[in-house]
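Data deposition worksheet. Section B asks for the primary sequence of the deposited chain exactly as it was used as input, without tags or linkers unless they were present during the calculation. Section C holds the resulting structure in token form. Section D is free text for depositor observations; keep each observation to a single sentence. Incomplete worksheets are returned to the depositor.
Section A, Depositor: J.P.
Section B:
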Amino acid sequence: MALEILKIVNLNKSFGRVKAASDINLTLQEGVLTSIIGPNGAGKSTLINMLSGSLPADTGRVFFYETDITRLPVHQRVQLGLCRSFQLVNIFPEMTVLDNLLLPTLAVNKRTRRLFRALRNETGAHREVAQILDRIGLKEEADTVASALSHGDQRVLEVGVALAAKPRLLFLDEPTAGMNPVERVRILENIRRLSEKKETTFVIVEHDMDIVFSLSDRVIVLHHGEVIADGTTEEVKNDPKVREVYLGQEVAV
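Section C:
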């Protein structure tokens, strides 16, 4: 049985009269590639923001490997191994791919107090970055300025930046947003390959049902802040509540 990596207990969040999260209880397992889906306003981003620490919950608790992280700030969650990427590309566009990866690598190893120019020569950091470049498929672009990359490769680089923090759990918020079909296939293959290595557990927030059902081991469906379905792709596809929410269009069997 897979090891429990995250436990969510009675999590609630309201914005005025709007209930964005309503008594959410979930357990995530190590190594299980999970997708969180739901229509606009379902509470997906609110949930991820609470789990990553950028938004406080009103009530409830969150445990990461049995450690209560409910009130921990973002940077402490990152230090424990819980990270996230965002819908918008979040990299340094005027820095090279290599330097974009060196910064978080050095930060994780607490080596950023010296001048970055001097740190660039550290062989240990370069070895780690070389491994990340190989894992995400950007080895040939190491010296390319990030702004010169295609949108798809910029999203791939962002995943690499997140991986440089050595996360045990990584939330990806719409990782294929704005990509063309070729770029989409590439990043999906990367995510699946990285997930299979079992070094990082991935949780994806997505709107694209094709992506969700082709990639996921487990699918969680939110609607009006509540979990209405949770299971394998086949179980979710055939769930009557899910089919009702999506009007039978995007979850057609």
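Section D:
The CA atoms of residues 33 and 62 lie 19 Å apart.
The chain is about 35% helix and 25% strand.
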